Amino acid sequence: MAEATGKSPNIDPRSGFCKSNATFYSKRKPVPLPSIQSIDVTTFISSRAHRGKVAFIDAATGRRLTFADLWRAVDSVATSLSEDFHIRKGHVILLLTPNSIYFPIVCLAVMSIGAVITTTNPLNTHREIAKQIADSKPVLAFTTPQLLSKIADSNLPIVLLESNTVATKSKIVTSIEEMMRREPSQIRVKERVNQDDTATLLYSSGTTGASKGVVSSHRNLIAMVQTVVSRFNLDGRNETFICTVPMFHIYGLVAFATGLIASGSTVIILSKFEMDEMLMAIQKFSATYLPLVPPILVALVNNAAIIRKKYDLSSLHSVLSGGAPLSKEVIEGFLEKYPKVTILQGYGLTESTGIGASSDSLEESRRYGTAGMISPSMEAKIVDPESGEALPVHRTGELWLRGPSIMKGYFSNEEATASTLDSEGWLRTGDLCYIDEDGFIFVVDRLKELIKYKGYQVPPAELEALLLTHPEIADAAVIPFPDKEVGQFPMAYVVRKTGSTLSASGVMDFITKQVAPYKRIRRVAFVASIPKNPSGKILRKDLIKLAVSKM
């Protein structure tokens, strides 16, 4: 893989663009990957040297897991899985739970024996979970008593993530605490696991279509771990991260269940997001890093006066935002209210193991609207969706990515895999982007979410960014509304700020003054909140269904 070092006359050292193959190369230092093929991600993480002492803290109970506790628990659960449940390489294990101190233990134990972890959203309906079970075919499930009813008719043997089993439930075979008391076996059945073997089966959010199982290898996860550790320069430094995002999602999995363990950092686990609980945890545990999604960051800005009066956030030095690029107004508003905290941003997909681009300093984040520069060891192309031509700097097209963290494919779905991964390993992200002269990626919009108005293409994200600058609008989403005459026109769902009496005509007039006629918003509905997935992306398909149902 070439690097944008400037040594090749064909690679522009400023943008990373190579004229000879129309490829953008990362300007970051490449991450080292293990040369030995037969290694699993758990062994890779546990073998990394660090000076960290406490791995995880449960924010609600204060329970702590030292790194010694963690690795003993992982070995005990892996032994139990192998010897008591006869779990073998390739078997799929379902994990259905909110954020928990047990989450990383289960994931790491499962992957250490070559089995595959599949996670699901606790908020999913019984039907949605049943569909995932039918697709992924797990042989064992870990869950909590509160969520038991969602998989009760699955006929899966169940391990409870509680201290005691429930005798009346015949499908419950043991508890995680019982497994953790198992004496680790040095002779347990452990098949040779290679980097190319499957480690995780995570289901994509399905914001533009049906949810699909993303198959990621141990190599994908090892590359992700190395990227996370190098990005934050964590070697030799013990930091404390607050876990606000769901661990079942790629964002939570990369940062909290695997990535940060390798650095010796401490992770404070919140079972669910509550603003006051998060702020109290920052204060109580002197957290230094706060990963979040844009809506939380906006809330921190809007409520800064109350927050700073009530909580001591002096330990915090960085917030990490992912899911969508932050606007200039949000970034500068945050820096004004929290001048000692640096904003870092990131871009990634489940299909790229959460890796793709990042801004690694405040200076980079102030390149307003950027998703950052291409991640280490990653390559990118900007491809014209119509012609298939790879484009140079400042030309908009679909972002393609290639690198060691790109998925193996979609589970049991050759058609979807072929339409997303090409024969050379390029991942079609579905995001319309351009890369500027300094190598920064700018996401214009989702390719499939462009509104087609009389043949014109209208990016919803552009209108949403404008709406969020209105002093009376707290949040907004724009969708394509079907129309016989024009095909589609932009419709806005708007969340008014408390006390606002903003009207629909007021919203439309505000946009009309700022955009070309074909981009005007022609319909407005006011809602209490905008539906979003765990990474902060707007669930436009839900809003489209809502709009169409009221036609």
Structural description of this entry:
It is a single chain. This protein has two domains: 50-435, ANL, N-terminal domain (Rossmann fold, 3-Layer(aba) Sandwich); 451-549, ANL, C-terminal domain (GMP Synthetase, Chain A, domain 3, 2-Layer Sandwich), CATH 3.30.300.30. The protein is 27% helix and 25% strand. It is built from 16 helices and 29 strands. A hairpin with a 5-residue loop joins strand 3 (54-58) and strand 4 (64-66). Helix 2 (67-83) packs across helix 3 and helix 3 packs across helix 7. The longest helix has 17 residues, at 67-83. It starts with 16 loop residues before the first strand and ends with a helix.
- Give a short account of the largest sheet: 12 strands, mixed
CATH homologous superfamily classification of the largest domain: ANL, N-terminal domain
Number of individual domains: 2
What is the assembly state of the chains in this entry? single chain
Protein name: 4-coumarate--CoA ligase
GO molecular function, one term: ATP binding
Domain AMP-dependent synthetase/ligase: 48-411
Family: Belongs to the ATP-dependent AMP-binding enzyme family.
Task: Describe this structure in a few short sentences.
This protein has 551 residues and is α/β, with parallel strands linked by helices.
Features:
551 residues; Rossmann fold; GMP Synthetase, Chain A, domain 3; twelve-stranded mixed sheet; 29 strands
